[in-house]
Amino acid sequence: MVQYEITHRSAAIPADLYIALGVFGEYYFFPSWQPVPDRARIMLPSNAMHAQTVLQITLPAPLGSGGPFTFYAAITSPNSVELLAELSYWDFWFID
Q1: How far apart are CA 27 and CA 90, in angstroms?
Q2: CA of 16: how far to CAs of 12, 34, 43, 58, in Å?
Q3: Domains in the chain, please, with CATH?
Q4: Largest Cα–Cα distance in the chain?
Q5: Under 8 Å between Cβ of 90 and 39
Q6: What is the pLDDT along the chain (96 residues), one digit of tens a residue?
Q7: Residue 24 burial (C-beta neighbours within 10 Å; 0-12, 13-18, 19+)
Q8: Its pTM surpasses 0.70
Q9: Which among 12, 24, 71, 81 has most CB atoms closer than 10 A?
Q10: Quick count: other Cβ atoms within 10 Å of Cβ 3?
């Protein structure tokens, strides 16, 4: 399971959430997980944490080794490229 958590310390605001999964040079975008840019409109609550599961999968066994794979995440003002927080990323591997 993959989820994000965002802590927002000011007034409630709408935002666009971009999450991409990089797999061997290809990119798949949340929430559709298609290879075309996509985003989710979220509401960042006032002085609170916002969390959501974005991907839940069961891996086949044996999976073998693979990677690196990378999740990238950005939060922007709605319909713009103005970042509301730093770009984040997370690398991971499967190890047999």
Answers
A1: 14
A2: 13, 17, 9, 28
A3: 2-94 (2.60.40)
A4: 47
A5: no
A6: 788 888 888 899 999 999 999 998 999 999 999 999 999 999 998 888 888 898 887 766 666 788 899 999 999 999 999 999 999 999 988 776
A7: exposed
A8: yes
A9: 71
A10: 10
